[in-house]
From TrEMBL, chains A, B:
InterPro entries: Bact_StressResp_Reg (IPR051932), STAS_dom (IPR002645), STAS_dom_sf (IPR036513). Pfam families: STAS (PF01740). PROSITE patterns: STAS. It comes from Noviherbaspirillum album. Gene3D superfamilies: STAS domain (3.30.750.24). It comes from the Bacteria. Transmembrane segments: none annotated. This is STAS domain-containing protein. The lineage of its organism: Bacteria, Pseudomonadati, Pseudomonadota, Betaproteobacteria, Burkholderiales. Residues 2-113 form the STAS domain.
């Protein structure tokens, strides 16, 4: 497993994180994603973390950084499928993911991204 | 990693296989997927294997069985993102995935599933 697939759906990109992220995988994901945002002219990125039971500060920071990178490339990021325990851990770690939108699931995330931005 | 997430998009379900399947993971996926097809009244299942560089006969059979299960639950399966080397291996293994539709990527798979069946 050397890279996480990025799936294109219309003007959106979908990333499903299923495995424990390590440094190199995170860097590759950020490289691939920024490249795809530009190449596919994506207006939104959905990051699904429903498979993650736990997150640590590394993943939290990775998601936060990825959202920032997407933002300066003019794409919005929505984090979907967060489990309750993950929300608790993130806040306890002091990572409130400021500036990252969240949605219950992929469908609602798509709806959020397709809404004209305010 | 004890289960592969199943994402709902309208009447379709999306499964992205990123990790090596082992027996228990495959059984869990088939259990989850059949349950979700019924619960979500899904009319189609997209299985993305773009992250897989290689497949073996176990994965090939698993995909083929999953598609058969979906079919008897009245849902079509489209396998998307297959890499050229995987196609070569599958045919060499004698697994031509008869009855499983394929598409280049998720977008084309969605288009295929949304087309009225002939």
């Amino acid at each position: 497993m050397d890279r996480i697939p990025i799936l294109k759906m219309g003007r959106l990109l979908l990333v499903t994180i299923q495995v424990d992220m390590h440094d190199q995988l995170a860097i590759t994901l950020q490289d691939d994603l920024t490249e795809r945002i530009v190449k596919d002219r994506a207006q939104g990125v959905l990051i699904d973390i429903s498979a993650l039971d736990i997150v640590d500060s590394f993943i939290g920071r990775m998601i936060s950084n990825t959202a920032s990178m997407a933002r300066i490339l003019d794409a919005s990021t929505v984090l979907v499928g967060m489990q309750p325990a993950v929300a608790i851990t993130l806040v306890e770690l002091g990572m409130a993911l400021v500036g990252v939108q969240t949605a219950l699931n992929v469908e609602q995330g798509i709806r959020l991204l397709e809404r004209p931005s305010d």
